[in-house]
Design a protein that fits this description.
Elements lengths: L7 E5 L4 H12 L3 E6 L13 H13 L4 E5 L5 H15 L4 E4 L14 H29 L2 E6 L12 H21 L4 E8 L5 H9 L4 H8 L18 H12 L10 E4 L7
Parallel strand pairs: 1-2, 1-4, 2-3, 4-5, 5-6, 6-7
This protein binds nicotinamide-adenine-dinucleotide.
Nicotinamide-adenine-dinucleotide binds next to helix 1, helix 4 and helix 6.
């Protein structure tokens, strides 16, 4: 019997990358999945996921022997998030786990940052996380249980130049996570965050494209200063989406029942350097 048998997880930004990987990991432990993604392009930003990717994920989860629905949701819009939460509860009867994973980044020097760019990054990476928690908290309170896992970033703990909107949003997620852990403990709800290091996903490929750089080269650049970088034994210098999903899965289960308010960096030691 899987560790999440009978449970239901709502995952944002689920059509590809880390979100899709989290969905697979939770489904393999028995969770049913409500997978949501924007599926619309955002002007001046790299491409978001496609309907085909979301449909493919839903089919994959079914092939794993679990069940899933895929919904088109922009996390910036509370009404859309709330409607998807209500639809998910109607369909599966409950939500036990919320993964606020959706995120976008852009390289912007502070004196060249447009209103649009600032709004997009803050509204997806910070307000989007608020929207998820706002939409699901009452349901979890009524049920007297739940696990909320927010996606921060190593870049929200240690500063990086030219992504100050992203750093501020992801740093905000760390503090909001602590705040919600305090607020929701009374209802037996755990609230934690993961802070991934650099991963070669759609985000880094998109960033590299913006900078006119080869994605592998960009990845090596961003990853050069982790504690495990270079030729250290064990080959732990490269953080993969699965490394994040293993921690997300742990936080979603009863194994993490005494952990709340924490942000766990999975970054090959970069934030400790
Ligand atoms: N890749 C990295 O190096 C890295 C490092 C640290 C943190 N993160 C964070 O991890 C999370 C997942 O990113 P990823 O690496 O899988 O990148 P990704 O670009 O592959 O995935 C992000 C997903 O979010 C979706 N999305 C974007 N805007 C949305 C919106 N408004 N509403 C709903 N969905 C939306 C995209 O369509 C995409 O499917 C993000 O929060 C990101 O900020 C990534």
């Amino acid at each position: 019997m899987g560790k999440l048998e009978g449970k239901v997880a709502f995952i944002t930004g689920a059509a590809r990358g880390q979100g899709a990987s989290h969905a697979r990991f939770l489904a393999r432990e028995g969770a049913k999945i409500i997978a949501v993604d924007i599926l619309d392009s955002i002007p001046d930003f790299y491409a978001t996921a496609t309907q085909e990717e979301l449909d493919g994920l839903v089919q994959e989860i079914k092939d794993l022997g679990s069940d899933a629905i895929g919904l088109k949701v922009d996390v910036r819009d509370f009404a859309q998030v709330k409607a998807a939460v209500d639809q998910g509860i109607e369909h599966f009867g409950r939500i036990d786990v919320l993964c606020n994973n959706a995120g976008m980044i852009r390289v912007d020097a502070i004196d060249e940052m447009s209103d649009h760019s600032l709004d997009v990054v803050i509204d997806i990476c910070l307000k989007g996380v608020f929207n998820g928690v706002r939409a699901v908290a009452q349901h979890m309170k009524q049920r007297g249980s739940g696990s909320i896992i927010n996606t921060s970033s190593a870049g929200g703990i240690k500063a990086l130049p030219y992504v100050s909107h992203y750093a501020a949003a992801k740093g905000g997620v760390v503090l909001a996570t602590k705040s919600w852990a305090n607020e929701l403990a009374e209802w037996n709800i755990n609230v934690n965050a993961v802070a991934p290091g650099t991963i070669l996903s759609g985000m880094i490929t998109g960033l590299a494209g913006q900078a006119g750089q080869d994605p592998d080269e960009a990845f090596e650049d961003y990853n050069a200063n982790t504690l495990f970088a270079g030729n250290k034994p064990g080959d732990k210098g490269r953080v993969e989406v699965e490394d994040i999903s293993k921690v997300v899965l742990f936080l979603a289960t009863d194994d993490a029942r005494t952990i709340t308010g924490q942000t766990i960096a999975i970054d090959a030691g970069w934030t400790a350097s």
